[in-house]
Design a protein that fits this description.
mainly alpha, 3 helices, 73% helix, flat
Length: 95
């Protein structure tokens, strides 16, 4: 029973947050102006010449780097699939 109440509260919290984000009014003109101002602030307006640097993809990786790369890819994939699942579930609950 305690677990059921916790799950129900979690679902209600997710519905509340989703509804809040969905109905939040963001003025789009002010946002684009702020982005333009920010881009002009950080722009240095100078030409950057390319050095003779060359990035190589090494085909012979060691085990540690391959494990880290595969682990990172797995985490990104799991998070992406989880977010898609939760958003689909939320949309189904709203409709």
């Amino acid at each position: 029973m305690k677990r059921f109440i916790q799950d129900a509260l979690l679902v209600l919290l997710l519905v509340y947050v989703g509804t809040y984000v969905q109905h939040k009014d963001i003025p789009q003109d002010g946002l684009s102006e702020r982005v333009d101002r920010f881009e002009n602030d950080i722009a240095q307006h100078k030409i950057i010449e390319k050095d003779n640097a060359n990035l190589n993809n090494y085909e012979n990786e060691n085990r540690a780097s391959k494990l880290a790369k595969d682990g990172s890819k797995c985490v990104v994939t799991c998070i992406e699939k989880g977010v898609i699942f939760i958003s689909t579930l939320y949309d189904a609950m709203i409709q």
